[in-house]
Amino acid sequence: MLRTHMCWAMSALLISLAGFAHAQIYTWTDAQGNTIYSDQPHPDSRQIDLPPTNTLESVVPQMPENRQSAQNQNNNQPGQLSNGYRTLEIASPENDEAIRANDGNLTLTINTEPPLSPGHILRANVDGEMRQEAVAGNGQPTQRLTLTELDRGSHTVAVVVTNTRGEEVQRSQGITVHLQRTSVLQPGRTGANSAPQAPKVPAAGNPAP
């Protein structure tokens, strides 16, 4: 029983000492006949050569593809698409189209695929500035967005999808539109929709007595 216990203790000591890559193991027999092991040399000791320590490479378990996809969807906020919209375009007006709008209003028809998601907001960027007019996501593939009080002349227009925090999700290609408005400086115009007025006839003077 004592020998078995000593063998078990010896094995445990060797295993623990083997963890030191550069440690040397020594053994000797004491006066009582016991076998001693140590990492310190003794006058009567002999060195033991240990076999190389086995090492195991850690492996990170891979999540199944279907579970990974479900987790990615759960991490997205409601209404937010992981890959954006396959289609986000201004269907009307067409690029380089001239629009007559004496009131300065321009209505955009926008197509999205998939439909505009709840939690997303559709706005317009005109000449590099974001407009205040907006359409909230309603699950429809076609939206109409009216921009008001645009100046006459050429404008570059793009539509932008944002989330509820105002962060940009996706932007469409820009188009150029030419807005035609009646100028208030045009002669004979007293309002945007007034017709030219004929000049007044001078009043006749009183006849001489």
Order of helices and strands: HEEEHEEEEEEEEE
Please count the beta strands (DSSP E, at least 2 residues each): 12
Contiguous runs where pLDDT drops below 50 for at least 5 residues:
1-5, 72-82
Binned, the helix content reads 10-25%
Assigned CATH superfamily of the domain at 87-180: Immunoglobulins
The CATH level-2 architecture of the domain at 87-180 is identified as Sandwich
Q: Largest beta sheet, briefly?
A: 6 strands, mixed
Strand content: 25-35%
Using only C-alpha atoms, the radius of gyration works out to: 43 Å
The global form is rod-shaped
Ends distance? 160 Å
CATH topology of the domain at 87-180: Immunoglobulin-like
- Helix segment tally: 2
Regarding CATH, which class of the domain at 87-180? Mainly Beta
Average predicted confidence as pLDDT: 76
Summing up helix and strand content along with how strands pair, one would put the structural category as: mainly beta
Summarize it.
The chain is mainly beta and 209 residues long. It is built from two helices and twelve strands.
Task: Describe it.
By secondary structure, the chain is mainly β. Helix content is about 15%, strand content about 35%. Among the domains are: about 1-50, no CATH class; about 85-180, Immunoglobulins (Immunoglobulin-like, Sandwich). It has helices spanning about 1-20, 65-75; strands spanning about 25-30, 35-40, 45-50, 85-90, 95-100, 105-115, 120-125, 130-135, 140-145, 155-165, 170, 175-180. Strands 5, 7, 8, 10, 11 and 12 form a six-stranded mixed β-sheet that branches. A three-stranded antiparallel β-sheet has the order 2-1-3, with helices on one face. Strand 7 (about 120-125) and strand 8 (about 130-135) form a beta hairpin. It is rod-shaped and about 140 Å long. Mean pLDDT is about 75; it is low at about 1-5 and about 70-80.
